[in-house]
Specification:
Length: about 150
């Protein structure tokens, strides 16, 4: 029950941040958050994953700086004639595979773009000669630690 209330509170908080906390907004926001909570409990039951608050905070706080650095690197490399774009196979190991791939797609410079015949994810990289798979593995480990997967 506590997990359901926590999810409801989080979803309602998102509603309030996006909209407003006025009477009309809450009249729609409360039932919407309740319905979203019901769906979330069906899609991801309580107890499957146990998020670790400190690791999650570290992951979220690291994201803007990492995105800024990666974006700067992408801009710098866009004018480099030695750039070797290509696809690098990467086999995620976490049970949170799809969530991690979504998270990693938010970072500039690499983009999950399908699968090869072995089932490995093909990551489009701006420079396929760099250790893209190793970087993805480090990020996946951070992600899995944060979400307990």
């Amino acid at each position: 029950m506590a997990a359901a209330l926590l999810r409801f509170a989080g979803l309602l908080a998102v509603w309030i941040v996006i909209g407003e906390a006025g009477g009309k907004d809450l009249a729609v926001g409360i039932p919407t958050a309740a319905l979203a909570t019901w769906f979330s409990l069906r899609l991801l039951p309580v107890g499957i994953y146990r998020p670790r608050p400190l690791a999650l905070a570290g992951l979220l706080l690291r994201f803007p700086l990492q995105a800024l650095l990666a974006g700067t690197e992408v801009a710098r490399r866009a004018f480099d004639l030695r750039l070797r774009p290509g696809f690098v196979p990467y086999a995620p190991r976490s049970s949170l595979r799809d969530a991690f791939l979504t998270w990693s797609s938010l970072q500039p410079g690499t983009l999950p773009a399908g699968e090869d015949e072995t089932g490995a994810v093909l990551v489009h990289a701006l420079d396929a000669t760099r250790p893209v798979a190793a970087a993805m593995a480090r990020e996946e480990a951070r992600f899995a630690r944060a979400f307990g997967g």
